[in-house]
Fold this protein.
Amino acid sequence: MNNLLNVFLGVLFFTSVSASPNELSTRYKLLLFGVNIGEFSVSQTDNNGNVNIEAITDVKVKFLFSYRIKYVQQTVYDQGILQSSHIETYKNGKLNSNMWLKLQNNSYLLVLDNDTTVINESITYSGSLLYFNEPDGIKKIYKERSSEMKKINPVDEHVYSIRDEKDREINRYLYENGILQYAKMHHPLGTMELKRVMESSND
């Protein structure tokens, strides 16, 4: 019976599965106090509802001492449901932390280094989707790096914000044609900005 079902599904979805995947990619400048401190690049591949996102953040900060932080993030969605997220954090070229989030039996297992946590909530929109998927109609967003579920709301046309428990704005996002163009984020180091780099730009 299972074999017959698999054959039927294969025939039913043959045309769409065979279609070429939709691939998108872009880059952003990262600014702290208006100073360029690094680059963020993201790519998204959508193959019939199976979405793979790769994001790389490369930051170099100089204060009393300088250090370099690099985040390498891989996220997988299937038919609108988050399946897994993997984030590796490197500090000065060495692996500093390793975080996995995996869907298992209708809940998520979060593994950060050697600590594990179970998240009993469906995740249909997370930070990885922000760049090519304007959150129109979205009410909640899962922040992969902090493992937090936050509220996200529109504040203007194609402008959205995330607020903390005290209703203070912590992030703001501006879109054009469904693609994130600019973001302003509150960070322990200060206000950080994300500005999209157009291919024709000389920046």
In short: The chain has one domain: 20-197. The two ends are 59 Å apart (CA to CA). DSSP finds two helices and 14 strands in the chain.
